[in-house]
């Protein structure tokens, strides 16, 4: 997609949206509600006409404002799984999956063959005559995926396909989507506000912010290690933000009177603005020597890690320690006073947008 512009009335949702997805890649598009994710893929699939830009699928131009090309959705060969109307309740599983082919007037025998293939791929063989109401939520989603496969096993777009499912089923579906992808080498564009699902499933993640622009594209590791801005930092994973300030030569957490934490200017401090430190719960270390003192307010055991809520001045910080770290007898009790040290902290302009 290149230089795509889409407005609803006077509200321009996508201003100049460009995105390239490589063959065989799973790309996640994440971003806050209303930022334009669904709009972007509606444009890709041909359900709305951009005012500007070009869309190319496998080398074939399917939309170009300039060249007046506009291929209808059913001929773009993109499989689609939408959450709202994932399956049609009044059609059997077979008819649901056959629908995109019937619409393209594919011969009956060919339809039967491809439906059977798609059901096999999504592990729904044997359910042909079931109605959706006779299926579980997870099975309905599989039918939706099978239907997408009959449109194309080349490119599939999924818009929040599994948010209705419970956590365990969701996990299973993610694994299955991944397996299906590696079997068929399908290109998948996966839209969600669930950044964890995106990180688990996707090769690359595209992060959109409220104004419809893309603020970062990269692997989950890129996002975690080098978030492009404060928005990405706060969007990916749990984060703490603490205002900081320089006071008579030392750097202080700007809490109460100021709590000094560094005698030298920390790396990454931005000049000329009010700074805020972004710090991950895993990057706060308990250190008795540290001048930053806090009190454990709450300690929650989460199996592989401990989640601590630590009060420092008037702020509550999230701290995580892996259970392995804690096996050395250092488990912290509620009410206990601790020293805190920061690793890998980032600095942002306190005025910058966050989630
Ligand atoms: N048919 C429409 N008419 C007018 N405005 C619309 C229409 N569809 C979407 N919008 C507006 O466009 C913006 C983007 O909507 P879109 O559905 O693309 O968001 P989204 O990123 O998919 O959000 P969510 O995560 O909630 O699904 C929103 O402000 C929405 O109100
Ligand atoms: Mg949406």
TrEMBL record:
It comes from the Bacteria. This is ABC-type quaternary amine transporter. Gene3D superfamilies: P-loop containing nucleotide triphosphate hydrolases (3.40.50.300). PANTHER family: SPERMIDINE/PUTRESCINE IMPORT ATP-BINDING PROTEIN POTA, SPERMIDINE_PUTRESCINE IMPORT ATP-BINDING PROTEIN POTA. Transmembrane segments: none annotated. GO terms for molecular function: ABC-type quaternary ammonium compound transporting activity; ATP binding; ATP hydrolysis activity. Its EC number is 7.6.2.9. Pfam families: ABC_tran (PF00005), TOBE_2 (PF08402). Residues 1-236 form the ABC transporter domain. PROSITE patterns: ABC_TRANSPORTER_1, ABC_TRANSPORTER_2. The lineage of its organism: Bacteria, Bacillati, Bacillota, Clostridia, Lachnospirales. One of its GO terms (cellular component) is ATP-binding cassette (ABC) transporter complex. It is an enzyme of class 7 (translocase).
């Amino acid at each position: 997609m290149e230089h795509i512009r889409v407005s609803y009335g006077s509200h321009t949702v996508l201003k100049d949206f460009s995105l390239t997805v490589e063959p065989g890649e799973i790309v996640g598009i994440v971003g806050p509600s209303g930022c334009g994710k669904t709009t972007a893929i509606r444009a890709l699939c041909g359900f709305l006409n951009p005012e500007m830009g070009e869309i190319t699928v496998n080398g074939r131009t399917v939309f170009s404002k300039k060249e007046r090309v506009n291929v209808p959705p059913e001929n773009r060969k993109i499989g689609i799984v939408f959450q709202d109307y994932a399956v049609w309740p009044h059609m059997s599983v077979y008819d649901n999956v056959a629908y995109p082919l019937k619409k393209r007037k594919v011969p009956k025998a060919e339809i039967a063959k491809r439906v059977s293939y798609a059901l096999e791929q999504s592990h729904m063989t044997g359910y042909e005559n079931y109605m959706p109401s006779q299926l579980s939520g997870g099975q309905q989603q599989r039918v939706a995926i099978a239907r997408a496969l009959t449109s194309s096993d080349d490119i599939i777009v999924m818009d929040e396909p599994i948010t209705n499912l419970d956590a365990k089923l969701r996990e299973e579906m993610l694994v299955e989507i991944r397996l299906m992808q590696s079997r068929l080498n399908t290109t998948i564009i996966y839209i969600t506000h669930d950044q964890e699902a995106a990180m688990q499933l996707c090769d690359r993640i595209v992060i959109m912010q409220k104004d419809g622009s893309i603020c970062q594209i990269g692997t989950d590791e890129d996002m975690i290690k080098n978030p492009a801005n404060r928005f990405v930092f706060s969007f990916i994973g749990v984060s703490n933000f603490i205002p900081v300030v320089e006071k008579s030569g030392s750097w202080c957490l700007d809490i109460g009177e100021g709590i000094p934490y560094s005698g030298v200017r920390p790396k990454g401090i931005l000049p000329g603005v009010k700074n805020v430190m972004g710090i991950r719960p895993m990057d706060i270390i308990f250190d008795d020597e540290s001048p930053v003192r806090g009190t454990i307010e709450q300690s929650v055991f989460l199996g592989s890690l401990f989640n601590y809520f630590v009060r420092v001045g008037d702020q509550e910080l999230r701290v995580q320690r892996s259970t392995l770290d804690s096996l050395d007898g250092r488990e912290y009790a509620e009410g206990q006073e601790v020293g805190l040290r920061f690793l890998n902290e980032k600095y942002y302009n306190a005025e910058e947008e966050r989630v």
